[in-house]
Amino acid sequence: MKPTISWSTLPTRIDNEADLDDLISTPSQAVVDFMSGLEGDVAILGIGGKVGNHVGIMTRRALDLAGKTEHKVFGISRFSEDAKREQLERAGIETVACDLLDAASVQKLPKAQHVLFMAGRKFGTQDRSDLTWAINTLAPGFVADRYTGSNLVAFSTGCVYDLVPVNGMGATEQFATAPLGEYANSAVGREQIFSYYARRDNTPTCLFRLNYSIDLRYGVIRDIGDKVYAGDSVNLDMGHVNVIWQGDVVQRALLSLGLCQVPAAPINITGPETVSVEYIARRFGTFFSKEPQFSGVPAETALLSNAAKSFTLFGYPQVPLETMIEWTAEWILQGGGSLNKPTHFETRDGNY
Ligand SMILES: NC(=O)c1ccc[n+]([C@@H]2O[C@H](COP(=O)([O-])OP(=O)(O)OC[C@H]3O[C@@H](n4cnc5c(N)ncnc54)[C@H](OP(=O)(O)O)[C@@H]3O)[C@@H](O)[C@H]2O)c1
Questions:
Q1: Which of 78, 113, 194, 262 could bridge across to 154 with cysteines, CB 3.0–4.6 Å?
Q2: Mean pLDDT throughout 192-205?
Q3: Angle at which helices 17-24 and 246-255 pack, to 10 degrees?
Q4: 3-state secondary structure at position 162
Q5: Atom number of ligand 1 nearest to Cα 139
Q6: 131 CA → ligand 1 middle, Å
Q7: Distance from the alpha carbon of residue 337 to the mean position of ligand 1, in angstroms
Q8: Which ligand 1 atom is the nearest neighbour of the CA of 81?
Q9: Is residue 221 part of a domain?
Q10: What pLDDT is attached to residue 262?
Q11: Residue 343 lies in a domain
């Protein structure tokens, strides 16, 4: 595998999970150059989730390529999955098991000049909304209190905005937050808690408003591909989405360490297209030689972010939409693994 990734070095297909993880975790030259100017250790909290291990591994690889081998990368999570912890340790990340709802344990976490906060809870909110609020607002308070003065990138979500017209401009960072449902409200709470501590303690903070990261094992594109492959109908009520390749997400998360400021400021992170769900389904239909089935009618509004600011700062994502669809189609055809964690992107009332 190549040490760094660029658009011109993308593979035509991905054969297995090791190659997939390697691809997503490969830094771009821009990330290596950025990391060469970084001083101090990096802590990634909530590293045990769908995106965290890639953030951890790319951080380690970029620091090593930048000659910053003495800087440590700490991976912090409860580690509900042992395999994730072992993968991270093998990659040179120092893992620390910690429940971020335990304030005393959080205070004992290793010092770090740079922090990426990725812990969160979305699914299961209807059954235990109290737990969602605790993880999304209480844990950020404990973490911000521990890491005063560090550069802090706090993962957030495009769900903090209301639905917007599909023929409009998408929600920019200037749009007021107007969340739908308990999860999105708690995500606004997470941002507000980080913003409060940023001002209180002069902690430079970036609110990383992501929507729909694409890995071949989960994500909106995989959800649609699975439906078309199985002959199930694709619901078109949420007729348009924004998506971005997970490797591009991880690169942007690391580059966002350079955007941390007081007061905390948001950045929208997604792809450049307003993508039609019907279009994605029809592309899969071509690959699978199946006529896609549909239900519902595309609404005039959808959850859509305008990520123009991120393109100005970081350039366009490296992996184009068509490539994501093609890789996913090949992956499904070869029986490639799934996390079995549907995004429920069709949901329009915020109850995921
Ligand atoms: N993936 C996306 O497309 C997407 C889109 C929009 C926003 N986001 C945001 O980006 C962040 C990362 O995304 P993700 O998909 O990786 O999320 P995820 O799969 O839900 O991972 C979050 C991880 O946080 C850890 N965690 C939860 N509660 C914890 C606690 N009390 N103490 C310590 N760790 C805890 C869990 O790992 P352990 O079980 O190991 O503790 C969990 O797997 C999330 O906060 C989400 O809001 C993601």
A1: 194
A2: 98
A3: 30
A4: coil
A5: 31
A6: 13
A7: 20
A8: 40
A9: no
A10: 98
A11: no
pLDDT above 90 (res 3): no
Asked whether residue 81 is domain-assigned, the answer is: yes
- Give the CA angle between residues 148, 154, 155 to the nearest 5°: 165
Is 124 a residue whose pLDDT tops 90? no
- Residue 130 host element (H or E): helix 129-133
CA-proximal residue: ligand 1, atom 19 (nearest): 49
212 Cα nearest atom in ligand 1: 3
Residue 9: the pLDDT is: 85
Number of domains in the chain: 1
Q: For 202-242, write each residue's pLDDT tens digit.
A: 999 999 999 999 999 999 999 999 999 999 999 999 999 99
The whole-model pTM stands at 0.97
Tokens matching residue 21: 């993880």
Joined together, the tokens standing for residue 228 give: 């078309």
Place of tokens 């101090």: 40
Q: Is the pLDDT of residue 126 over 90?
A: no
Which residue's entry shows tokens 């109908």? Answer: 233
**How remote is the CA of residue 50 from the centroid of ligand 1, in Å?**
7
* pLDDT reported for residue 1: 59
Q: Cα of 136 to ligand 1 centre, how many Å? A: 10
153 CA → ligand 1 middle, Å: 14
Pocket of ligand 1 (CB under 6 A): 46, 48-52, 77-80, 99-101, 118-121, 135, 139, 155, 157, 210-213
In 3-state terms, what secondary structure has residue 116? strand
CATH of the domain at 136: 3.40.50.720
Task: Report whether pLDDT(2) > 80.
Answer: no
Q: Name the token pair of 47.
A: 């590293």
Which of 208, 210, 216, 218 to probe ligand 1 with, by most ligand atoms within 8 A of CB? 210
Tell me whether residue 207 is in a domain: yes
Phi, psi of 311 (to 5 degrees): -70, -35
